[in-house]
Amino acid sequence: MSIAIRDANPNDAQAICRIYNPHVLNTIVTFEEAEIGVREMTERIERITAAFPWLVTESDCAFAGYAYATKYNERVGYRHTVVTTVYVDETMQGRGVGTALYRALLERLAGRSIRAAIGIVALPNPASIALHEKCGFRKVAHLDQAGIKFGRWIDVGYWQILL
Known about the structure:
Blueprint: E1 3-7, H1 13-26, H2 38-49, E2 54-59, E3 62-71, E4 81-88, H3 97-110, E5 116-123, H4 126-134, E6 138-149, E7 152-162
Parallel strand pairs: 4-5
Antiparallel strand pairs: 1-2, 2-3, 3-4, 5-7, 6-7
Helix pairs in contact: 1-2
């Protein structure tokens, strides 16, 4: 299996929505509750890529996943810290796509003088925990009942890596 990683562009919005929206509708991994349309995703891509990397990957010519970074906090003192996000198509999970994406993203961030990357994980999520820890993150915080989805309270863990 070959994996090609490249910068995202607005033309990727539909494929990104195809991967992301099932998580919105069916899982706790995101606290969004309504599907994201292509137009909204296009705007997100444009806004985020103006300041941070957003990478996509194709495996054997099929769109397989994406990863990006956003500001951790608006305060200027946090300018060297980001929150990272990775999603992999459910048919491509367990094949190293997420690891390849995450490592490429972290490499790009280190090249931009980013000091700390934080992965925020809705719990339980053993696959995300394993991915973060495989890429060198360590758990630094656990927030009890920090979010709500599907009528139940969800704990959230913070994983961090220093670059």
